[in-house]
Amino acid sequence: MIVNQLTYQIDTAGFNQGVDYDMLSYIMSNSTQHMNGVTIIDGRKAREVRLPKLIARVQKLSFRSHLAIIQVGNRPDSTSYIRAKKLFAAKIGVGIVHKQFDETISQAELLKEIAEMNQSNEVQGIIVQLPLPVQIDKKAIIDAIIPSKDVDALTSTSVANWSQGKGIMPATARGVRELLNFYDIKLNGKKVTVVGRSDLVGKPIAVMCENAGAQVTVCHSKTVDLVAGTKDADVLIVAVGKPGLITEKHVNMGQVVIDVGISRLGEEQLAGDVDFANVSKVVRAISPVPGGVGAMTVLALFENLIDLCEGKM
Known about the structure:
Elements: E1 4-7, E2 34-35, E3 38-40, H1 43-60, E4 66-72, H2 76-92, E5 95-101, H3 107-119, E6 125-128, H4 138-143, H5 156-163, H6 171-182, E7 191-195, H7 202-211, E8 215-220, H8 226-230, E9 235-238, E10 256-259, E11 263-265, E12 269-271, H9 276-279, E13 285-286, H10 294-309
Helix pairs in contact: 1-10, 6-7, 6-10
C-alpha cells in the first residue's frame, strides 16, 4: 500500500494530461554524459534501444495494427500531440484512424462513435485525446472503450488491473518504469516520493513504484511542507506542471530525480517541474525536460497497443 500521502499548496490545474514531449527540441546535445558527477537520464537513448524491438513486434503481427484517436475540438496542444503520435506510428508501421469532432458534439454522439470503434475489426486500440469539453462526462466516455482496446489504460477495468500489477499501464508510467530500468535504477526497497496525483500520470506512477516494491509517498495539492516529503526520498518523481517547483532545497545528494512535468514559457522556451540547472548540481541522476520521460511516452503508448494486439492484457 502507499504508506503516506502528503499535500502541498500549489496550483496543479495547469498540468496537461497526455503530454507528448517527443516532438519538442532536446534540451541537451550530449545528455548521456556525466556532468559535474551527475548522470543525465537520457530518454532518447533509451527509446532508440527499445525502438527496433517494437518494430520487430509490429512486423510479426499477421495483420496491420491500427490505433483510433478520437479528438474533440481543435486545441493546438492536442493537435500537436496527435501529430507526434501519427509520425511515430508511420515510423513503426502502425496505421492511425483519426476521428475529429466539433467541440459541440453531444455525449450521446461521442458514445456512438466509440461504440463503432469498439466493433471495428480494423481498429485494435482506442484513445480519447484529453481534455474533453465541459458538456462531456470524461469517465463515461473513457469507460465506454472496451478494455481490450484501452491503450491509455484508463477504463475502470484497466485501472483495477494495473493497480494489482496486471495488464498494461498508462503510457507515462510505463515510460518512467522503462527509463529507470534502462539505467538500472532499482525501486525495490527504496523510498520513492511522487509529486502529483493525476489519474493519467501521478497515480499510475505511484502504483507502478509500489508494485515494484518501493515505499511510496504521494505529495499533492495541499501539503504545507513539501521539502519534508521530497528531501528524504531515494527517488523523486515530479509530475505537476509547475515550472521550477522543485529546487535544490527539496533534494539530497545521491538522489535520483525524474521530471515528468512540462510547461511552455512563451513561444519557444520549455520548462520542467524541476529547476534543472541547480538541482543537477546536487543529485546523483536527473532527467531533463525535454529529452527525458517524454521521449519514452509515445513509445510506451505503442508498446501498449502491440501488447493488446498480442493479447497481453
